[in-house]
TrEMBL record:
Residues 14-182 form the ArsA/GET3 Anion-transporting ATPase-like domain. It comes from Lipingzhangella rawalii. This is ArsA-related P-loop ATPase. It comes from the Bacteria. PANTHER family: ARSENICAL PUMP-DRIVING ATPASE ARSENITE-TRANSLOCATING ATPASE, ATPASE RV3679-RELATED. InterPro entries: ArsA/GET3_ATPase-like, ATPase_ArsA/GET3, P-loop_NTPase. The lineage of its organism: Bacteria, Bacillati, Actinomycetota, Actinomycetes, Streptosporangiales.
Length: 342
């Protein structure tokens, strides 16, 4: 299936969500590397104040500034930004009201905390606004303001933006928060800001990718998330099945083992041919592990088939042994490219 067939060939904002524990941040980082291949420039952002990007790239905690964290295959660059709601508020006040100094004074009194307590969606408005500003930003622009001598056809600063987003349990509310804000503030800068954010999020520029593992709860949350995102008219991209275990049996042997049937004599002959001593005893000891593996594979296959109900392109990423390092990220990025995910 080609990028055009998937329906998000024009996407420049790739939102990555998933249930906690599915490797959402790791996959977001790998996707950024894959998108940056062949000389492209990609911004990887996070909004949960966990410094997850710094951890996966094994670098110092990220400031509220766009910093290069990796060079992709063929020379592309991956920049990263940890978005802070308070700093985003200062950007917002300067952009629309020219009040950065006043805003800085207000933050000392905890205005952001107060505002987000009174109106919980305020924080999400600031975070999504900063992300979409990076998507729209063109060369020659600063903080969302276009110089008089700049043209609307100037190249974008970033070829793509990847957002390591909140979990699937609240992703629809997070992405759709500006619709509610636009309805409450029917005119003025706040309404204009909310409209501009949703113009990006609801357009072909955006694709929301859901990360899952082949376990009951993550799969169900993935399917629920896809449905909820679709219900608020935000484009869904793909389903990314992470930590897929390797299969060691062919289809015939897998089917037999899943039904509890193992040819122990054939297994012993294979072990003996491989040069193992006490092949018969070893074969007997391996039978329980082989049966457990076959049952796991069968269960995962059933869950994989359930994901097809979402009718979205689905890609498989392998289970990597040990902690994920930069080499592992490059490997996952290559798997995404090989499967045609980008």
């Amino acid at each position: 299936m080609s990028v055009r067939d998937r329906g998000w060939n024009d996407a420049r904002l790739h939102v990555v969500t998933g249930k906690g524990g599915t490797g959402k941040t790791t996959i977001a980082a790998a996707l950024a590397l894959a998108l940056a291949a062949s000389g492209r420039t990609v911004l990887l952002t996070e909004v949960e104040e966990r410094q997850g990007i710094a951890q996966v790239f094994d670098c110092a905690p990220l400031p509220y500034a766009e910093r290069r964290v990796a060079v992709a295959p063929d020379g592309g660059d991956v920049y990263a930004l940890a978005i802070d709601a308070e700093a985003a508020l200062l950007d917002y006040l300067e952009m629309f009201y020219g009040l950065r100094r006043a805003g800085a004074a207000l933050t000392r009194f905890g205005v952001v905390d107060f505002a987000t307590t009174v109106a919980p969606g305020t924080r999400d408005v600031l975070l999504t606004g900063k992300v979409t500003e990076a998507v729209r930003r063109r060369q020659g622009e600063e903080r969302g303001r276009t110089p008089r001598d700049a043209t609307r056809r100037a190249p974008f600063v970033y070829d793509a933006v990847v957002l390591d987003a909140p979990p699937t349990g609240r992703i629809a509310q997070f992405l759709n928060v500006n619709t509610e804000v636009a309805g409450l503030a029917r005119m003025g800068p706040v309404h204009h800001h909310a409209d501009r954010v949703m113009e990006v999020i609801r357009s072909a520029q955006t694709a929301v990718h859901v990360v899952t593992t082949l376990e009951d709860m993550p799969v169900q949350e993935c399917l629920d998330g896809v449905e909820q995102i679709t219900d608020v008219n935000i484009p869904v991209g793909s389903i990314l099945v992470n930590m897929r275990r390797p299969r060691f049996l062919n289809e015939t042997d897998q089917r037999a083992a899943a039904e509890g049937r193992v040819d122990t004599e054939a297994l012993a002959r294979g072990l003996k041919a491989a040069g193992l001593e006490q092949a018969e005893q070893t074969a007997q000891e391996l039978v329980p592990e082989l049966l457990a593996h076959a049952h796991t594979v069968a269960a995962e296959q059933g869950l994989r088939e359930r994901l097809e109900a979402a009718q979205r392109p689905t890609f498989d990423l392998p289970l990597l042994e040990g902690p994920i390092d930069l080499a592992g990220l490059y490997h996952l990025a290559n798997v995404l490219r090989t499967q045609g995910a980008v």
